[in-house]
Write a structure and sequence with these properties.
The longest helix has 18 residues. A three-stranded antiparallel β-sheet has the order 1-2-3, covered by helices on one side. The N terminus is likely disordered. The protein has 113 residues and is of the alpha+beta class. Helix 1 runs antiparallel to helix 3. The radius of gyration is 17 Å and the shape is elongated.
């Protein structure tokens, strides 16, 4: 079951946002299904919080549905997750390919209505 089946909104609006407005403001990348297995993330939601110089050390925030949120601050954990997130980003589809993937799912969903 595709995650896009849960998106609410009118397909033309979503397509417009994916192609222009949202795409220009945020950086979304999709990890294709045929990506190498070692790129699969260890957690559902991982956020690397990078702090400006002089404002503390970087943190990792891991959110899990059965545990809640956890902050990791030790340097080894932060480095491990930074490396994993970098590998994910490098293995993900580029910006144009991501917009094409999203657009194809929007079109597929529009045809189901």
């Amino acid at each position: 079951m595709s995650r896009w089946q849960y998106v609410s909104g009118h397909p033309p609006c979503l397509r417009s946002q994916a192609g222009t407005g949202i795409a220009a403001q945020i950086n979304i990348r999709i990890l294709p299904f045929d990506a190498p297995a070692d790129l699969v993330r260890a957690h559902n939601s991982v956020t690397l919080l990078t702090m400006p110089p002089g404002h503390g050390d970087d943190l990792v925030y891991i959110e899990s549905s059965n545990v809640g949120g956890t902050y990791l601050s030790d340097k080894d954990s932060v480095m491990l997750h930074r490396q994993r997130l970098t590998a994910l980003f490098l293995g993900a589809a580029g910006k144009d390919a991501t917009v094409e993937i999203i657009d194809s799912h929007i079109k597929r969903l529009a045809n189901k209505r």
